Amino acid sequence: MPVSVIITLPGAFHAVAYSSRRFFLFLIIMLLGIFHTRTAAQVLSNPFDFPVQLSGAFCDLRADHFHAGIDIRTKGSEGHALHAVQKGYISRVSVNSRGYGLAVYITHPDDSVVTVYGHLQRFNSRLTDLVREKQYEKESFAVDFNLNPDVMPVGQGEVIGYSGNSGSSGGPHLHFEVRDMRTNEFIDPLVFYKSHVPDTRKPYVRGLMVYPVEGKGMVNGSNRKQNIELKLDKNDNPSIATTIEAWGEIGLGIRAVDRMDGTGFSYGIKDILQTVDSVETYRSYADRFSSGESKYINSYTDYEEWSRSRAFYIKTFVEPGCHLRFVASRNSGKINISEERIYNIVITLTDLYGNVCNVPIKIKGRKQEITPPDTAGTKLMKWYDYNAFGSKGISLTIPRNSLYSSIYMQYKASYPGNSVFYSTVHTLHRSPVPLHEAAQLSIYMDRIHEQADTKRFGIVLINVLTGKFSWIGGAYRDGWIDAEISELGTYAVACDTVPPVITPVEPDKWREKKQVGFRITDALSGISTYRGEIDGKYALFEFDGKNAMLSYHFDSKRLQPGYHQLKLAVTDGCGNKSEYRHAFTW
Fold first, then answer.
1. Which of 80, 317, 501, 527 is the most buried (most CB within 10 A)?
2. Residues 6+ apart with CB under 8 A from 465
3. 395-408: pLDDT as tens digits
4. 35: which residues sit within 8 A by CB, 6+ positions away?
């Protein structure tokens, strides 16, 4: 008969039940992984000529994803020489107006890792020429291509480009990743640079949330989640300021950040442990994850709270539809308050350096009537199943395993007068619910804009707190608009008939700077495509998405001195088009 073993190993901290046969295989894999990490950690060098300081850490909590690397500060400026951290070869190059902007990928076969360098200002001269050829070949600023090992080998310390602020960067820095080639997982780069970055500061707690399980638990006489007041002493040690009384099943959520020496930045928490009466019930150790797991952040944290206040509460319990491999739990991390006594709970937060913050929580068990869930007028949506919903003017289908927990969806239709919308406003549930896979939403149009063709209509997501809405889009079908959505929220159909706005930036200095610049904006559906031409031929305009800036640098290889005609065409997501024409001499 197989023997069950509970194991906890350094570098993983997963408490999982294994049969005796699986135990030894797991142990071998873990030891190989630890050995590999330590070996690689000895050979990755500093990518810059100045000390490493971080503005972002691995697994920081971000909108809709975990941060896949570390952000290295660049003294608040751009243009610093960027070096390959180990010998290898450039295996991929990408250019985009969003995301990583200008990025280089280097494969290091000796240690089975790929390092990624994002948000560059520019590449080295050899890469720049190669990228430019690809861009003109595709007639596109955005390119993404792979290279064979013999095309561009690099040595450790070789300059591959210069630091910048391209893509979705919020300021000058280097986004740096380490990926395991064998498993295609992101792994924590700070492991390789721990000796470069001093840290004696412990994590800092900002808030605590208590969640009664719907229909199974109560907290202080309520079936709603409650924000619990915390007190901090002079050493930032937290304690509970009020009495928590509970009955039945509950869960906890912690709002906390890590801190490092010499900076004011906040970082994600490496290791989170929850014990109930000294028994481990939950552990999260953020050492690695795959790209397919990143969206689980919407279950790992309180999505409703983030949507409402942009505050991240990490739940120390696990929803059934969340399959993050760096999280382990007993009874899904939920706490069963079934006796009238004091339950002693401790949430321990630890960073990579072993700095620890303990959050002691006492919950008083007190019998109280558990309020059943309000199911009147709702539809049960099961997390593991295919779900469909229909009502007048709306149809919704949700794929299997797209919900993280089952919900009783509450639907509401409203009919605002003199509305900018061309349909009923449909609210799917009382609060935002994230979806791991996109759902299909169809909304029927109650009226038609008399001056618009059908491709000008699209679905919008409405923020009920601010009244603002964001464009989702979709396709017209016999009076319906079909689109994919990533959360349950409030939706309606809107119309975009206004073309993008093209604004020249300092045109009197174009000739002096040998550069043409435009700001391009769109009020609703967003910029979809743009194309620049000089004398009827494609001209490469670089797009800075976050600043909505297009720029063309006079290219002496492709632009001869003399008189020229420039044309810029910009189209939005609904096909509305604007053009700008300009004659110039260079």
1. 317
2. 308
3. 999 999 999 999 99
4. none
Surface-to-core class of residue 118, CB atoms within 10 Å of its CB (0-12 exposed, 13-18 middle, 19+ buried): buried
pLDDT number for residue 43 = 67
Query: DSSP character for 498?
Result: P
Pairwise CA distance, residues 88 & 372, whole Å: 60
d(CA 575, CA 572): 5
Residue 389: φ, ψ to 5°: -145, 140
Tokens of 166: 């391209």
* Residue 168, token pair as written in the block: 């979705």
pLDDT band at 111 (very low <50, low <70, confident <90, very high): confident
Q: What is the 3-state secondary structure (H, E, C) of 204-216?
A: EEEEEEEEEEEEE
At 110 the pLDDT is 86
- The arithmetic mean of pLDDT across residues 512-525, rounded, is 94
Comparing CA positions, the residue from 187, 156, 152, 68 lying closest to residue 118 is 68
d(CA 407, CA 513): 59
pTM score = 0.90
Phi-psi group of 157: left, alpha or beta (phi > 0 → left; psi -120 to 50 → alpha; rest → beta) = left
Percent residues over pLDDT 90 in the chain = 85
Query: DSSP strand E in 318-432: where?
Result: 327-329, 335-337, 342-350, 356-365, 378-381, 387-391, 394-398, 407-414, 425-428
DSSP notation for 143-199? EEEE--TTTSEE-TT-EEEEEB--TT-SSSEEEEEEEETTTTEEE-THHHHGGGS--
More confident residue, 29 or 77: 77
Per the CB < 8 A criterion, the answer to whether 344 and 360 are in contact is: yes
Distance between CA 8 and CA 5 in Å, rounded? 10
Sign of the torsion formed by the C-alpha atoms of 69, 77, 75 and 47: positive
Residues 261 and 325: beta-carbon distance below 8 Å: no
Read off the pLDDT of residues 191-208 as tens digits, 9 standing for 90 and up. Answer: 999 999 999 999 999 999
Q: What is the pLDDT of residues 12-28, one digit of tens each?
A: 334 443 334 433 443 44
Residue 35, classed as helix, strand or coil, is helix
Q: List, in order, residues 6 or more apart from 223 with CB less than 8 Å away.
A: 212, 214, 215, 217, 370, 371, 373
